Amino acid sequence: MNWLIGAVLFLILAPIAGGLIAGIDRKITARMQGRVGPPLLQPFYDVGKLFEKERAVVTTAQNFYVLAYLIFIALSGALFFAGGDLLLIVFAFTLAHVFLVLGAYAVHSPYSHIGAERELIQVMAYEPMIILAAVGFYMVSGSFYVTEIAATTVPAILYLPGVFLGFAVILTIKLRKSPFDISTSHHAHQEIVKGITTEFSGSTLAQVEIAHWYENVFLLGFVFLFFAWNPVIGVVAVAITYLAEIFVDNVTARARWQAALKSGWLATLLGIANLAILSYMMLGGA
Amino acid sequence: MQTLLFLIVFPILVACLLLFVKRTTIRYAVVALSALAIGGASIYLLMRYAFEGAVYFAAPSGAIDLAMVAIEMGLALFIIYMGAKFRNYLAILLAVIQAALVVYLEMTFSGSLHAANNLFIDQFSIIMALIIGLIGSLIAVYAVRYMETYHHHHPEVRDRQTFFFFVTFVFLAAMFGLVFSNNLMWLFFFWEITTISSFLLIGYSETEEATKNAFRALVMNLLGGVAFVVAIVLLAATEPTSGGIDLARVLASPDAAVVLIPVVLIGFAGITKAALMPFSSWLLGAMVAPTPVSALLHSSTMVKAGVYILVRFSPVFAGTFAGFSIGLVGGVTFLVASAIAISRSDAKSVLAYSTIANLGLIAACAGVGTYMLVWAAILLIVFHAVAKALLFLGTGVIEQRTGSRNIEDMEGLIVRMPKMAVMMFIGIAGMFLAPFGMLISKWAAIEAFVQVPFGLIFIAILAYGSAVTVFFWAKWMGKLVTVTQNTERVEKGFFEESWAPLYIITGLVIAAVFLFPVISSMLIEPYVLAIYGVTAHLADANVAIMLLMMALLLILPVSFLLFKRTARHLPAYMGGRPATPDLHFAGSLGLTREAQTRNYYLTEYFGEAKLFRPGAAVCIVLILVSWILAGVAL
Amino acid sequence: MSTMAFLKRSPWILHYDASSCNGCDIEVLACLTPLYDVERFGIINTGNPKHADILMITGGINELNRAVVRNLYEQMPEPKVVVAIGICAATGGIFRECYNIAGGVDKVIPVDVYVPGCAARPEMIIDGVVAALSILEEKRAKMTGAAQIKDDARHAAGEST
């Protein structure tokens, strides 16, 4: 029954936590730039506002794809917090992103189109590392199930430092932070307007935002797994990781897609090297 | 046993009958009825033998053996004749070598060329028979109308439809024979028939290009054929107790090291037939053939024979370095072919590279050959056959209706051909998205490779490979679902009957997800259990989640009802320029210009020119290494 | 829904330079800097009309950007307000006599708030946005009200038949 509680709690609490995290993020970013920044609850105001706006679409189909994106992001997060199979979760997660990309394709708009292509490049950049991270957890805990990974008493981070660093790189891509905010950006305008979300407005855009909150909580949960043997250290580590991401966001400029792809794939190589050493040690030990 | 013989003999009879049917309507009736009979018989096979494990049949030999040798000689003469006609001396050389080896085999080892049982059936054969019987015959049904339209569009091609359908049905018969043979001599005979059949079908249009590509396919497959005969010679030379030419005995041989060399050679034959690198070019060249041929070659016949043989022999590969090396050939092929697919805009070319990639993955599973991997490999074979057949047939329809098979020209297909677009969408989803089949298998493969020593190499290959797979499929999907405005619907006008096979196969793609637990527990798991003593299966909770996801996907389109039709429709944002919904905008000097969207192909990174040679080189080295390692093991 | 009114707390801006001398544009950008930090009020410069609530235009309308300004305005979902920044945006300013200048922004689209000045100072721009917020809120109330009336009418019609 635990799994059901985990899933339901995630579905209810993640938007709240995700919105708060986004609020803290904006506040810290503002402080780093010497500004006061918006109120903590600003992300909720934004989303609330978007629901108040008129429904305007390029094509009705876009609503469908964005809804599917939201549902499958929520589903993969719920599976994660229910303690499910990490690989299945990763694949559900990919499915969700494909829906977002299809939504951007459906509207037949030049800016959305470039955003969609770049989003796909991002998926291509981070997917290997995320699969590899799951495999890394398996090698440490002997299971792909989040429940069992979280229950291990060994500090995964000590066995998987390379995997963690690699994951931190793709986390930047996933959180849509500079230098890898190439498909859409939370900041002021970029060269492709708002990229993948250009044609989404009102409640559709709000759904994208909520999906992003779900996603961030899920990703931070993933980071937590590296430190799961000690929950206190885990929470602190998650906070430090996120702070580091905000810092990187603020000190780097947007890179080209080539850089995103290369970084993601090189990070994966780091992870592979880590796992190779690990399996060598395990073979030696056995 | 009658059902087995029926499935082998009946298509041949139909083939002969079709030689004399000139009118399309009658041909359609004949093909449809025999498809029904063949499909029915393969389903009967499932019900009759699914729960019986492996069943062996003595089946008459003697006269049949003799006839087979005679036909093989005849085919060799035919190849020599064709080779002389088109000045392809390599084909002649290989055919002569092969014929000489067969004669040598018959002369020297005539005493040991008997298998205790010539035919057999087990769950794996049933799965293959179902693929051939259902998908293969549906493609044949589709082909009737397609070929009529094809000749309408290509008046320059000589109309040889009777011959076309003759070869198609012989092909199906050979495939059935191949998966039912326990006698390796028989297996080799059917193997050669598939080689010749595909040669004839690829060269159907008789253009210079078609002939060239047909010969390329022939030469590469003959190369495999030669390796196959050499393997049989080596096996015939061993004691019958440790192998001989009886498939079951070879697999259960107590003398694994002795049979390893011949099995690696047969594996090489499998590699050529499954178009793994460096032999992938024949399958790409095969695109010149009419689309049903591609569908046949890629989904239910030919290449599936290659991976069938690899999976069949994977208990011998298991745990050997030679097997691991063959697995790596598959792995490298998977990665390189997936990457090249990114750079292709021709739909058939993308499909071909994706086939090569997936066959590589199957070979990787088969080469390493643990019980979980064999389980995953068989799943891959099933799901790939269904989804790929749908995609090829769909591409054929689109090409005939719109005049192009370029992915860029498929933009807005959801508006122009909604039914076809939805089917293509499902087919593509079947190839790479959760919870569809291919993804389940990839997932199973990852879980299996984790437990193999040095499996990390494969994990890395799979991780990168599935990432690039997402890229090239998703961007194609994107083109399909783009809602273009002011475009004409062109779906109507295609012959009505041709939709039936498409509908059925689309249904199969979806059904495969729901039926997958049944397929696994009823067929694949008992097969794996019988061979390895242990079996793999997906955890019940995960199966439940997959079904939940599938149900969600089926329900989600209902949400269209929720969206208010009153929503204001705005044209796409064009940087502030006033634009029409179909992306025409007021340019400078008062001219109206049109914005177009094109996909990324990243040729600079993933081009064929960049990746093929290194990939092929690595694979050649790996194949040689597999031979050396097999020799060392002896 | 109608009582929540998040709109006032989250006005997103689209800034368009019609044919400004860049003086006002610099001042608009100054609003984003740490000194003025308009993000305190939830204001974000989106650069995308589909996401924006407030269209901020600097400079007068000329014959070439007439269509562009109208297009940007049409692309914004309701409710929306237009703020004309600087004297040129209000009337054409010192350029009004030029052969190619049509005049202020209100020659093309309805303007809700005029912020005078040459160049308009950041304080005044912020003040203009704050004034725009209450208009935005009014429009929103009217919009939901209109929808409500339409809904009621439909229900009434449904009951009567």
From TrEMBL, chain A:
GO molecular function terms listed in the Swiss-Prot or TrEMBL record: oxidoreductase activity
Location of this chain's protein in the cell: Membrane
Principal subcellular localization: membrane
Stored InterPro entries: ComplexI_Subunit1, NADH_UbQ_OxRdtase_su1/FPO
Keyword GTP-binding attributed: no
UniProt keyword annotations, A-Z: Membrane, Oxidoreductase, Transmembrane, Transmembrane helix
EC number: 1.-.-.-
GO cellular component terms given for this protein: plasma membrane
Listed transmembrane segments: 6-24, 63-82, 88-108, 153-173, 217-244, 264-283
Coiled coil region boundaries: none
Pfam families per UniProt: NADHdh
tRNA-binding as UniProt keyword: no
Signal sequence, start to end: none
EC primary class: oxidoreductase
Membrane-related topology note: Multi-pass membrane protein
Protein's recorded name: Hydrogenase-4 component C
Species this chain originates from: Methanoculleus chikugoensis
Taxonomic placement: Archaea, Methanobacteriati, Methanobacteriota, Stenosarchaea group, Methanomicrobia
TrEMBL record, chain B:
Residues in NADH-Ubiquinone oxidoreductase (complex I) chain 5 N-terminal domain copies: 110-149
Keyword S-adenosyl-L-methionine: no
Any GO CC annotation of this UniProt entry: membrane
Boundaries of every NADH:quinone oxidoreductase/Mrp antiporter transmembrane domain copy: 181-460
Residue stretches in coiled coil: none
Keyword vocabulary terms for this entry: Membrane, Transmembrane, Transmembrane helix
Localisation per UniProt entry: Membrane
InterPro entries: CPA3_Na-H_Antiporter_A (IPR050616), ND/Mrp_TM (IPR001750), Proton_antipo_N (IPR001516)
Major site of localization recorded for this protein: membrane
TM segment ranges: 6-21, 28-51, 57-81, 88-105, 125-143, 163-180, 186-205, 217-237, 257-276, 283-311, 317-343, 350-369, 375-399, 420-440, 452-474, 502-524, 544-563, 611-633
Membrane-protein topology: Multi-pass membrane protein
Membrane is among the record's keywords: yes
Name this polypeptide is given: Multiple resistance and pH homeostasis protein A
Organism name: Methanoculleus chikugoensis
Gene that encodes it: mrpA
UniProtKB/TrEMBL annotation, chain C:
UniProt superkingdom: Archaea
Keywords: 4Fe-4S, Iron, Iron-sulfur, Metal-binding
SUPFAM superfamilies: HydA/Nqo6-like
GO MF, one annotated term: metal ion binding
Obligatory cofactor(s): [4Fe-4S] cluster
Stored Pfam families: Oxidored_q6 (PF01058)
Keyword set includes ATP-binding: no
Record InterPro entries: Complex_I_20kDa-like, NADH_UbQ_OxRdtase-like_20kDa
Iron among keywords: yes
Name assigned to this protein: Hydrogenase-3 component G
